[in-house]
Amino acid sequence: MVANDAPASTFRYNETPVYTTSNGAPINNPEGWQRPGSMGPLLLQDFHLIDQLAHFDRERIPERVVHAKGAGAYGVFEVTHGISDITSIDMFGHVGKKTNCVARFSTVGGEKGSADSARDPRGFSVKFYTDEGNWDWVYNNTPVFFLRDPTKFPLFIHTQKRNPQTNLKDATMFWDYLSTHQEAIHQVMQLFSDRGTPYSYRHMNGYSGHTHKWTKPDGSFVYTQVHLKTDQGIKTFTNAEAGKMASENPDWHTQDLFEAIKKGEHPSWTVYVQVLTPEQAEKFRWNIFDLTKVWPQKEVPLRPIGKLTLNKNVENYFAEIEQVAFSPSHLVPGIEPSVDPVLQSRLFSYPDTHRHRLGVNYQQIPVNAPLRAFNPYQRDGSMAVNGNYGANPNYPSSYRKLTYKPVTPAATHEKWSGSAVHALFQDVNDDDFVQAKGLWDVLGRTPGQQDNFIGNVSGHLCAAHQDTRNRTYEMFSRVDASLGKAIKEQTDKQANQ
Ligand code: NDP
Ligand code: HEM
């Protein structure tokens, strides 16, 4: 069954199905319980009650370790511009080609019940049910990230979550990490601009962040970055508005998405790609495998490809959104990961967490199931619910021939040799502040944006220890001396109140 083509509803007001136990036996009263006589003790033979309680006890599955709070919907991607000159990805086959998909948006650091309007990056994930397998875009609403060394991810995330002793969010932990890992500055600039508090999921962009390789059957390839620009326009909360919404309606983004789609106001995004040939990449000013850097749009223009539209709400949130499992390693012919070490680590981490969160057969859950998969050498395991390939041989049997379709790997542009080293991507240097300063200047183009930025930082930083604050002022001074000075003045004032 294709998730997007699932029956519209299994729920009909005018039908009265027969209520049964979970093994299908009719029962007269869902609220009754078995006992001898009028007030005798509960009988262990009451399967209906025991089963009900035992199932309830197991209703929760582990929440996502990051991006736990989210909302999603189904949609369609339509190609508007041919790009066969750069890739053979089937989904982009011809202008007008449509591919069904499911999308999930999320905050990052908060728990499953946390407020949608928190200052945080937003996840922007889409699973496309293509004719050549599921292709997942596991993107954020920012074009860069806090780190370029994958080993730092769990460490960084710990500092954005709760203090191990107090179980409170902790401003000192938060800024201690960022001010001692200053390659994060570009992402910190994004996060504390008003784009760090989007008005809703419909009003933000999505970015691949990572560089990928898009390939052609002749083995040639280009390096790419994908951008999804909201057709609703960027709209943000101020810090005060976001705080107010967190207490008045912590589920605002979830509600906004659901109600817009229900009303027929289908949100859409125009999808673009930035392209560099291997030769251009070699001479490029920026290391294209450094996740803390963008490709300036003036130098690498955006090329339109198509439109993503979300047009259908889910029928059941748990089945279709809580259980949806995205992974940067769910790729299709025509696309390969680049050597960006953060991307390479993510290729492992997501299926690993899905096996923990959903079980080894997570790809069989209807929302995750590809249009067609035939992989009979993967068998059994917990919750093998799709027939388990029946009598098909579980090894490459000479009695059952399969068709193996050739897939050409891209010509290797990167050639590696040398001893194994254990080292960082690179040390922080002045280059790490250039694009951060570029964004500071972009903010200066819109009246009030720089002032908001200073207010957004100081309102958060003022709760950190003095020495952490001092190191953070120095960090912002490396972006722009006046910025560091203004943040120091406003933060110290609030800290001393
Ligand atoms: P340009 O001067 O060509 O364009 C500025 C870009 O800045 C816009 O296209 C917009 O991205 C983005 N932008 C505008 N306001 C904000 C904001 N409040 N917060 C975050 N981004 C904003 O830009 P360059 O490509 O030379 O980049 C300048 C800076 O813009 C970069 O240092 C980077 O921080 C940021 N940026 C760059 C992107 C890129 O891929 N090149 C993407 C997003 C941000 P958009 O059109 O995507 O909305
Ligand atoms: C979710 C790991 C970096 C975007 C997750 C999850 C894990 C994880 C374990 C939970 C997945 C689940 O339970 O379903 C990592 C690691 C990273 C990393 C180890 C770096 C080494 C990034 C980056 C981006 C990103 C750079 C964006 C460019 C997302 C999104 C989700 C997510 C959008 C939510 C997916 C959903 O909607 O289900 N990440 N992540 N992550 N991550 Fe990452």
Task: Describe the model.
This protein is of the alpha+beta class and 497 residues long. The chain is built from 13 helices and 10 strands. Strands 1, 2, 3, 4, 5, 6, 7, 8, 9 and 10 form a 10-stranded antiparallel beta sheet that branches. Helix 3 crosses helix 12 (466-479), helix 11 (449-461) packs across helix 13 and helix 12 (466-479) runs antiparallel to helix 13 (481-495). Bound molecules: NADPH dihydro-nicotinamide-adenine-dinucleotide phosphate and protoporphyrin IX containing FE. Residues 64-67, 70, 104, 106, 123, 125, 138-140, 145, 150, 153, 209, 325-326, 342, 345-346, 349-350, 353-354, 357 line the site of protoporphyrin IX containing FE (HEM).
Number of strands: 10
Quaternary structure type: single chain
**Cα-atom Rg, whole angstroms?**
25 Å
Terminal-residue CA separation: 60 Å
Which kinds of small molecule does this entry bind, naming each only once? NADPH dihydro-nicotinamide-adenine-dinucleotide phosphate, protoporphyrin IX containing FE
Main pleated sheet: 10 strands, antiparallel
Q: Pairing-aware structural class of the strands and helices?
A: alpha+beta
Stretches where pLDDT falls below 50 for ≥5 residues? none
Q: What coarse outline follows from CA principal-axis ratios? A: globular
Average pLDDT confidence is 96
Secondary-structure element string: HEEEEHHHEEEHHEHEHEHHHHH
- The helix content is 25-40%
- The proportion of strand residues reads 15-25%
Number of contiguous helices: 13
